[in-house]
Amino acid sequence: MSLMAFTTVYAQEEEELETDLTTLQFVDADGNVIADGATVNFAPTDPEETPGGFEIKPGIFVENLTDEPVYTAAQVNITAMSSGSLMCCFPANCYNKFELEEFTTDPSEPIQAKAKHSLNTEWYAEAYGSCTASFQLKIYEATLAPGQFVPTKDLIANGPKITVNFIYNDPASINGVSNDGAKAVAFYNANGQQINNLQKGLNFIKYSNGKTVKTVIK
Questions:
Q1: Strand 53-56 to strand 121-125: parallel, antiparallel, or no bridges (unpaired)?
Q2: Which three-class secondary structure state does DSSP give residue 166?
Q3: What domain of life does the UniProt record list for this protein's source (predicted)?
């Protein structure tokens, strides 16, 4: 039996790849669409402490808009990281990066029809700071030739792309304001609407001691 029967083959040619925004899309934990080209910020006030640092994990998912399974991967470009490492396990295989670099994950398993799959990415921060990375979805066509057990995956299109800012701030010292140990209890945007995390632009942070602090995320 030939080696081809056990090997997944990927098309590497990306010249003149079309952009397809009808097959996959990014969504948040509530199902809200994150538009192609958008920049999103995640700044939890109480991140989980792990052996690798403080875990900053945005609730981002990739949704399959079609009635068929879709093989996909992510081209990840880490452009800033103040400390720690960025872990990406999308769709399944994990990559843990400690330096600024660009890499593409393995399209090892498909997203099922009409299903959502977590982006499975987190920044492990060792100290207050930030990490910035872009995520470009890649769309593959899978074919299974006679005698093959693993399908050949040919890269056919680029999907949507977003940029994520992972932010680990000390809530008690944003803009140099001391809150005497008070914890942030709510976030609001410039329109006064409550939001889950700090966003780009003007934000208002309400603390447990009753104070409200204005901050700007750039």
A1: antiparallel
A2: strand
A3: Bacteria
